[in-house]
Specification:
single chain, mainly alpha, 7 helices, about 80% helix
């Protein structure tokens, strides 16, 4: 496939590509993985600490402490995004900040902040849900498919 692309390029373009590859800095993959693991693990550790706080101080069960924990993590992530701190953490940690709840909240808040000058409905609302829409649709469709499979297994098991 790469050879097919090379055939369409002019000799100058091929020469430039080889020149650019020589000048491209090496990516420290192992170091990036360690950073992602540590920061992502720290976010998860914070979530666990928040859940334990709800369990011990507000008498939640492990099952009922999940929703307020997610809400607090979303709030913290959105607040840090608004102050520009989450982006600096993400720059350092890379994929480690893509922990589902906080990463999703960051992506929605970033889109809302970026397009606020276009107005609340078309700017903030429209662009915020461009990112969130696909995730929400995937979640709903996945939940439907899982529920359908569970229902089929239950019906077949009752026969």
């Amino acid at each position: 496939m790469a050879k097919a692309k090379d055939k369409k390029l002019t000799p100058t373009q091929v020469q430039y590509q080889s020149f650019a590859k020589q000048r491209e800095p090496a990516r420290p993959a192992f170091k990036n993985c360690i950073r992602a693991f540590l920061i992502g693990g720290s976010i998860c550790l914070l979530g666990q600490a928040i859940q334990s706080f709800f369990i011990h101080f507000f008498n939640f069960t492990e099952k009922t402490a999940g929703n307020p924990t997610a809400a607090v993590l979303i709030f913290i992530s959105t607040l840090l995004t608004g102050f520009g701190i989450y982006d600096r953490i993400a720059q350092y940690a890379g994929a480690g900040t893509a922990v589902p709840v906080t990463g999703f909240a960051n992506s929605i808040a970033s889109a809302a902040i970026e397009h606020r000058s276009e107005g609340y409905v078309l700017g903030v609302g429209g662009n915020m849900f461009k990112i969130a829409g696909s995730v929400i649709v995937f979640g709903v469709v996945s939940a439907f498919v899982v529920a359908l499979v569970k229902w089929i297994i239950r019906v077949l098991g009752a026969m």
